[in-house]
Amino acid sequence: MAETLVHAEGIGKTYGTVVKTVALQEVSFELQAGEFASLIGQSGSGKSTMLNLIGLLDTPTTGRVVLNGHDTTAASRKQRAALRNDFIGFVFQFHYLLPEFSVLENVLMPGRIAGVAAAELVPRAEANLALLGLEGLEKKNANDLSGGQKQRVAIARALMNRPALVLADEPTGNLDSVNTKAVYKLFREINEELGTAFLLVTHDRGVAQQTDRILEIQDGHLLQDVRNEYLAPA
Amino acid sequence: MLSLGIAARFLRKSPVQSILIAAGIAVGIGVQVFLGSLITSLQASLVDQTIGSSPQLIVRAETDGDPVVFDAALKRAMEGQPEITTVVPTRSFSAIFRQEAESAPLQFTGGELAELDTIFDISGRLVAGDASLGAGEVLVGKDFADAYALTPGTAASFVLPDGKPAELTVSGVYDFGSAAANSATAFVDGAYAATVLGLEPDQYSAIDAQVSDVFASTDVAESLRGEPALSGLEVTEWQEANADLLSALQSQSSSSYMIQFFVLVAVALGIASTLAISAVQKTRQIGILKAMGMGDRQSGRIFLWQALILGIGGAAVGVGAGLGLIAVFSFLGRDSASLFPITPQVGFVVISFVVGVLVAVGSSLIPSRRTSKLDPIEVIQGG
């Protein structure tokens, strides 16, 4: 039986104190290690909020998130930061590369934050860049790359600490169709090669249907949680 | 040391901003070093000019005009004070200089030249003639000599306190750097002064002394007053006679401290505001670093490191600029007698440097706190 990576139980999120906006209500699901899943829904449905809560970037108003066996309900900011660094790789719609650093330095960053010396990390960072077809760009400044290249560097960075889970929020939102296809193909390859679990937030059903499992959120509720019949591996 | 590396990179990638902050610190510390050294040296020069070449402690008889017997007990009592560096017995009298229809009063001090030199440094300040106080010789000040066209070898006529005339030969002319001292004093041989005053060989008008720390004169005088060997004698010290000067020096120090304080406040505000802007500019980077797992403390340290780097760099340049200004000031005033030498105090320069670094680091506390409190979700949600 696969190991449970994310256990989300009765998650609710309400913003505001005077005027309250309910973003999520009673959402529960589990994500197993190595899964390739998507989270879909209309704009404003609460899918990014859900991703941020699982990624420990935000705290739920109700419910709890257990990440790789760690109940994060009472975790301190320091513990949450350490869990993010250990278990999660983030890919956002915007690449969020650090413009002051080179491509290689950007990719090294999660490992450096974990306290590992740069020299020790370089072989893995170079392997990640090679996996993403970015050989030869190591010394380039992050600002000097094309949109697709930047997003691939962001993916290489997300994979640096060999996270058990990659959370990707509309990762191809700023890319053309060719690059979009390439990025999802890469995600699938990494998932299969490294066993990294993926939870992809998208509003594009076409993209979602290329994943093995679709979680659909509507108006802050989990509307459905289905295995994808069409492209699911045998 | 990741936060140090990030701090250094942030600074390097915003060179104009970094240079501006460092320049602000440099100007502040440069002013601090220059102004502080200027005021300290000015005060030292004023004190030196006022009392450096004069006795800082004088022991006289309580009854005006009575001689002081400088016996072994008195000598021991005075030389036994650790702060006293020089003890010189002197004989003083007033005489009137006469040249045709003109006359001028002069205050004569009689003593052995070698001993007088330890206080007045007459030999070192000689501008004409020889440093000699033989029988019948007199050393006069430059202004006095100029006023009456006296040159070495010239005979000068005087009327002594008892009304008798006397003729002395000018052996040399000295310059004490003060017109008052140069035009109203003269030095003669101690034995001659004893004759004029009718004193025995062990009798003197006063015993002059100098102390190693001029501001310790009050304590030394107090200590001397308690000595049995000084009973019946009166001890005066320079601070009692120069209260106005001391008050002026104190006021000058206070105004200097105020100026230095406000310069540092201005520097601190400048750094704080620029670093705060820098922190806002780097919000996205800090947010994503935190999303990747960087802790609050580590991220907060980025701006502390920035401030430390800028503080050390800026303060070092500031110290260099301050010392450079002092060098320029000294160079321009090398030939001017009215300018005083500025001597930077190592301790003060080091303190200024440390203060510069501390002000920079202190100014980074607000941006550093802001950074450590930043929630990555603010950046992620804000796009």
Element layout with pairings:
The complex is a heterodimer of chains A (234) and B (383).
Chain A: E1 4-15, E2 21-32, E3 36-40, H1 47-54, E4 62-67, E5 70-71, H2 77-87, E6 88-91, H3 103-113, H4 118-131, H5 147-158, E7 165-169, H6 177-194, E8 197-202, H7 205-208, E9 213-218, E10 221-227
Parallel strand pairs in A: 3-8, 3-9, 6-7, 7-8
Antiparallel strand pairs in A: 1-2, 1-4, 4-5, 9-10
Helix pairs in contact in A: 3-4, 3-5, 4-5
Chain B: H1 2-13, H2 15-52, E1 57-61, E2 68-69, H3 72-79, E3 84-99, E4 102-111, H4 113-120, E5 126-129, E6 137-141, H5 142-147, E7 155-159, E8 165-174, H6 179-184, E9 185-189, H7 190-197, E10 203-204, E11 206-211, H8 217-225, E12 233-237, H9 238-241, H10 243-281, H11 283-291, H12 296-332, H13 346-363, H14 365-373, H15 376-382
Parallel strand pairs in B: 4-9, 6-8
Antiparallel strand pairs in B: 1-11, 1-12, 2-10, 3-4, 3-7, 3-11, 5-8, 6-9, 7-8
Helix pairs in contact in B: 1-12, 2-10, 2-12, 2-13, 10-13, 10-14, 11-15, 12-13, 12-14
Written overview of the protein:
The complex is a heterodimer of chains A (234) and B (383). Chain A is α/β, with parallel strands linked by helices. Chain A has helices at 47-54, 77-87, 103-113, 118-131, 147-158, 177-194, 205-208; strands spanning 4-15, 21-32, 36-40, 62-67, 70-71, 88-91, 165-169, 197-202, 213-218, 221-227. In chain A, strands 6-7-8-3-9-10 form a 6-stranded mixed β-sheet. In chain A, α6 (177-194) links the parallel β7 and β8 (197-202). The longest helix of chain A has 18 residues, at 177-194. Chain A is globular. The model of chain A has no long low-confidence stretch (mean pLDDT 90). By secondary structure, chain B is α+β, with helices and mostly antiparallel strands. Chain B has 15 helices and 12 strands. Chain B has helices spanning 2-13, 15-52, 72-79, 113-120, 142-147, 179-184, 190-197, 217-225, 238-241, 243-281, 283-291, 296-332, 346-363, 365-373, 376-382; strands at residues 57-61, 68-69, 84-99, 102-111, 126-129, 137-141, 155-159, 165-174, 185-189, 203-204, 206-211, 233-237. The relative contact order of chain B is 0.19. The model of chain B has no long low-confidence stretch (mean pLDDT 89). Chain A binds chain B through residues 48, 52, 55, 57-58, 77-78, 81-86, 90, 92-94, 96, 98-101, 109-110, 112-114, 157, and chain B through 2, 6, 9-10, 12-13, 284-285, 288-296, 298, 376-377, 379-381, 383.
